[in-house]
Specification:
It is a single chain. By secondary structure, this protein is of the alpha+beta class. It folds into 2 domains: 42 residues, Immunoglobulin-like (Sandwich), CATH 2.60.40.4330; 64 residues, no CATH class. It is built from 3 helices and 6 strands, in the order βββααβββα. The protein has a 3-stranded antiparallel β-sheet with strand order 1-2-3. A 3-stranded mixed β-sheet has the order 4-6-5. Strand 1 and strand 2 form a beta hairpin. The longest helix has 13 residues. The radius of gyration is 15 Å and the shape is globular.
């Protein structure tokens, strides 16, 4: 099995996308096969995300899932000097407010998204 782990670092001035390609063998051993880095449109995501920071902070420490297998999203941020982190699995399958917020964030930083 193989797959990708994709992350984005969003700052006030730019967005950087990191893609880690991995291979998983029958024993479950994960091998990194490549890592790539690319700059995305400067400032576009940052400006949109800034308006959501106070809402995102309310999810600090939470972890929820809407299906057993699929995608997973971890959000880490700092706003007004306060760090926050939360995780959601398959948020696009949920019908609650916090999953809708995750969906809004993903639509800003990733296109297309389910």
């Amino acid at each position: 099995m193989s797959g990708d782990v994709v992350g984005r670092v969003i700052t006030a001035s730019h967005t950087t996308k990191y893609t880690l390609h991995v291979q998983v063998d029958r024993r479950g051993l994960v091998t990194v096969t490549s890592l790539s880095k690319s700059q995305l449109q400067p400032g576009r995501a940052s400006a949109s995300i800034q308006g959501l920071l106070s809402e995102l902070q309310t999810l600090d420490g939470q972890d929820w899932a809407c299906a057993v297998d699929g995608d997973s999203t971890t959000v880490e941020g700092v706003a007004s000097g306060r760090r926050f982190v939360f995780r959601s699995s398959n948020a696009w399958l949920c019908q609650d407010a916090r999953s809708a917020l995750v969906g809004r964030v993903l639509h800003i930083v990733i296109e297309p998204w389910p």
